[in-house]
Every structure is written in C-alpha cells, then in structure tokens.
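Workshop exercise sheet. Pairs work together: one partner reads the sequence aloud, the other fills in the structure field after running the prediction. Swap roles for the next sheet.
Pair: D.N. / O.F.
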Amino acid sequence: CVWSGTPKKELIDIMDEHYYLSPQKFFEAESKYDKYNRKGPKVYIGEYAAGGGRGNWIAALSEAAFMTGMERNSDVVEMGSYAPLFSNPAWEAWNPNAIVFDSSRAYGTPSYYVQALFGKNKPDVMLPVDLTVSAAPQEPISGTFGLGSFNTQVEYKDILVVGANGEELFKGGDSLNGWKKGAGKWAAQDGVIKQTGNESPSQLLIEGKNWSDCTLTLKARKTGGAEGFVIPFGVKNLDDSCRWNIGGWGNKQSALEWDEESKKQNVTIETNRWYDIKVELKGQNVKCSLDGKIIHDVTRTKMPKSFFAVAGRMNETNEIIVKVVNGSQQAQEMSMEVTGAKALASTGKAIIMASDDPKGENTFTEPTKIAPKEEKLEGVSDKMKRTFPPYSITVLRLQEKK
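Structure field:
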C-alpha cells in the first residue's frame, strides 16, 4: 500500500494514492481524511482493495466503511477507483478483482456490488451525521500465532504455546501438520521449521486456534536476507496483519503492527544466531521479549470501530440518503433523528447487503449469494429506530414530501 505524503517542493493539484490493506486496516482507515489539510492538494484514490479470500464479504464491508470516509470528506477526496476490474481464473494475475468471468459466465464479487451500491446512491450534498454508538465490550486479544518474515530466510524451533495456568496448548516444529501455509517456501526438518523464500511477507499459522491469555515461546534464527523475524499474534486468518515485526524497516527496528501501533525500537537481527522470542497475551495487553529483554509492552485502550454512517441529499429526487455499515458480529440498533429537512414521506426504500458469514464469497454457481436486496421502508419520520443486522450494509432512501 502507499500512504502517500505530499511533495514539499512541488505545487500539485491532486494526489494519486493507492491502498491494498487487510480488512481491519480498512476499517481503521475510515477516518483518515477527517483531519486532512484542506489547503493541500486534493486526493484521487486511484486503487484500493481489501485482501480477503477471493474477494469475500468482510473485505467488501471494510471497503464500504472506508468509502463512507471518502464520501464524508468529498471536499478533498475528489475521485476513487477500485483495484483490478476483470479476472479470468485461467489467467489470473491479481487478487482480489471485482468481476470474475470465463468463456460463458461471469459474476461480481461482493466488492463489485458494494461499488455499484455506492455509485447508484451517491448524494449531491453531504449532510452532517452525529453518530453515537454504545461502547462494545472489551474482548481479550484472541486468535492464533504464526511465523513469518519479509524477504528473509528464517528458521524456528522449540515452538510452545501455554495457557494462563501453564497448561500446554501447542507444541510444534517436527512437521507442518497443524499449520496453515501462506506465502513462502516452508518445510520442517529435524525439529526446525524453515522458510527459504524471498516472499514479502511469508507466513505460516497454527491452524484452527483462537487462544487468549496465553504465551508463545520459540527460538528463531536468520539464515539470509534483508530483515529479521515476523511473529503474527491474535490473528484469525492469513489476511490479518497483527504481528510483531522484529528487525524490520531495513533490519533496524522492531514494532507491533496492530490496532494499537507501538513505538518503534531499535533492533537489528544478526545472521546465523539463535534468538529467544516470547509473546505474552493477557486481556488487552501484549508483551514481547527478545532474549529475555522486554521490547514492547502495550495495552489496547480502545476496541476497533465497527459501525459507520454517512448521509447526504440527492437534489434531483429530493431524497435523503443514509448509508450504514455494521462490520461487527452483533446487530446494532440506532435511533435516527433527521433535523433541518422538509417533512418526510411515511414510506421510503431500504437496500440491504448482509451475510452471517464474513468469509462468504460469490461464485459461478452462486453469483448473487451476497448481493443487494431492496425492501419497502415503513414508518418513516424525522425520529425513528432501526436495527442493522450483523455484517451488513444498509442504504436508506428517505423521500421529502413535495
């Protein structure tokens, strides 16, 4: 991804920024342009897409959340365009893509329908939204652990995960049974798991685990390459990017790449030397140690945002359009109050995209498994309540009376 900076010595009219991020990072980036310098150049988000399966629902949801921020800040974000549009599986060179086709069939990914939904419901004038959401309960850091690297060949051994009471949860290194491979050339030999490729990043996860309040210990050695070690923690799948990056940024620094970014510490990893690595998870806290020295000790202070809304007015049809994205696994009830508008008609229209499965995807055999559905909206008034399903996007079109 490119989180572009503004050239200091050149006067330019518009910046072309590209974002290829995990779904979690797109949820977090929704507010990126809220404090953007209004005296600087405008922004064209020339490419953006969330990684998730072959284009799954949670990826599309996170893109929708990011797009609410684009719309809300449309005084500076003048244009946006999705990542590659067409893909034939027989010659695929990029993932994700919006439309998948072969010689006789085609289907749109959930991301395609999100783009179409926002495009067909684009207001002319943005309206202020005061959104208050009840705080979500603080959940402990949970997920699985993994191994990885950036353009570096590494070895790991004596891998052990223990619970809060000292019970052994996992012990590995003799084989890749129980591991899920991402990028990289992974193999197990003589009790050592090796990664010999140059992928950036390479990744291997302990499969099917959702641990919390536990500790990972292991030994790690760099055998070649540009940087150091990567230890994913609290991750759900290969698309997540929660990790301890040790000896990153040109083998100079260490940091937690997580929803609570840690301060970078100066760390350099030597080649052909074994290091002791320890990652402790307790509640909202993660503590990382290298050769017995604590490098990071970070406590998450807030849960990532998962509920988003943006509103505007379509002048030609005299409609107020409200877009709501619920990226959580819980339904959310919202009290809505429309102020400053003309009297509203008692009926309107709701367009909904929803799926209980965040990893759900459309396919050739189920091309519209996740796609918008329209329904009549009853009981419209300037004050009303509505419950938004888990993992959903809802567009409300409220008609002003003539």
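Discussion prompt: The first strand starts at residue 14 and ends at 21. What would you look at next?
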